[in-house]
Amino acid sequence: xxxxxxxxxxxxxxxxxxxxxxxxxxxxxxxxxxxxxxxxxxxxxxxxxxxxxxxxxxxxxxxxxxxxxxxxxxxxxxxxxxxxxxxxxxxxxxxxxxxxxxxxxxxxxxxxxxxxxxxxxxxxxxxxxxxxxxxxxxxxxxxxxxxxxxxxxxxxxxxxxxxxxxxxxxxxxxxxxxxxxxxxxxxxxxxxxxxxxxxxxxxxxxxxxxxxxxxxxxxxxxxxxxxxxxxxxxxxxxxxxxxxxxxxxxxxxxxxxxxxxxxxxxxxxxxxxxxxxxxxxxxxxxxxxxxxxxxxxxxxxxxxxxxxxxxxxxxxxxxxxxxxxxxxxxxxxxxxxxxxxxxxxxxxxxxxxxxxxxxxxxxxxxxxxxxxxxxxxxxxxxxxxxxxxxxxxxxxxxxxxxxxxxxxxxxxxxxxxxxxxxxxxxxxxxxxxxxxxxxxxxxxxxxxxxxxxxxxxxxxxxxxxxxxxxxxxxxxxxxxxxxxxxxxxxxxxxxxxxxxxxxxxxxxxxxxxxxxxxxxxxxxxxxxxxxxxxxxxxxxxxxxxxxxxxxxxxxxxxxxxxxxxxxxxxxxxxxxx
Length: 577
Ligand SMILES: Nc1ncnc2c1ncn2[C@@H]1O[C@H](COP(=O)(O)OP(=O)(O)OP(=O)(O)O)[C@@H](O)[C@H]1O
Prior knowledge:
Keywords: ATP-binding, Cell membrane, Membrane, Nucleotide-binding, Transmembrane, Transmembrane helix, Transport. This protein is α/β, with parallel strands linked by helices and 577 residues long. Helices cover 64% and strands 10% of the residues.
């Protein structure tokens, strides 16, 4: 919670002045019943029109000043709550960027989105309510009681009985409904997760005719939310009848006992009216307090969820910089490397060793789940190795700054993502100052120049969300070009040409090899054909090395490799190998 308070520090002025202005409005509200009493007792009773006009004008003045105070408070509340939300959202977003894959996996991407949006909205609302109502509502409760006592302390005993009774009713209702409100929040979380998942995967859902199943899942989640909301609503619906019952009995008591006192001459009719007004004011203010409790309870849960993210620190720390040995004989070296994900004990990679030299191509092949992408994650230092030794240009990656590491490696991940914007903007991600010539060169090498040229707007062609206005193969080539623009010393393609036909794939490989005299290349592929000209191929089988060598060497030494080739190539092709 402390972590969140620092974002309010900037708005101390608004947090103090806002409630003070609201207090001015509340004071005026407490004065109004007294003026009404005076109008009745002096003006109407004495047929004194000038006095009625005088008090009427006073009422108008109080209303105008009260409204102005309320608007000023509203302004401060909006300024502080929106500013707080914006600062917090920016800080949270920046913090998430600094986290490693492990922490992001731990919370989950969709939950992070909900926390960044819904939870911060909830906190914004709470800040606005603190400024607008947190001081005003209790002040009105207390003020109404005091004002009533000022008029007639004996009759005000009705307040002293009614106020605790109303408080008990509020407590009973709130304590029963708040758990439901908490549950509603987590159910809303689940619903937004389902909505997002479904809309993201709408093509897959339709292609696999799973609409009905997904509809059922969604309906179930909506019904659960509906049930919980109804339960909370049913409890909450007792609030007004019960509190109004107490207030109406109190008003009856005030009128009954008050009328005796009016006959006795110790109280006036106007004062009775003022008493009734104070009673109503107190009830409304207590209801506001009850709503505030609900808002703050929800905000409390949201604050915990936001703080949980902010208190995470990246498990990947980059130490002091040591200069890279650019003339090192090896780009990447792994010696007996093993790795398990932080959330499991089971080794995903075991005893992996290889050396990749500058200008060389390393192919990685293996079945699904063999650990190919995981190995790439280690080279990128998305995770740290669990055992063994990993060096990049002769250095432990822990001693390379993050910027240098990212500048060194151009990664085209398996699930490539293009961002909304133009093709040029996407290309400049790796190198913001890249000129058109550099971009076209990268596009040519990635075999993407032809189709970009065919676009009417060329590099200024707009890329829709996720690159949906391009085919799978075009997206892959654009993603490869984007990685090439920054001219990385090590280019990693994680199954990034799977959607290309063999001829385009071959042209791509040729271009990459031609340009990459000094650049090392790691190619992950499920297709043996795509890797056959690599300088060495690492065969992974269930996280273990099942061979390392050239295509020809592996055909003699690695049964797993032979099996992969046999499953993909025809007998004729196999015989020609
Ligand atoms: N973040 C993670 N946390 C825990 N386990 C993971 C994580 N990511 C991957 N794994 C597990 O690690 C194993 C290897 O996954 P990896 O993605 O490296 O395989 P792969 O060879 O690239 O497979 P594919 O060819 O299907 O992409 C799998 O069993 C997977 O379940």
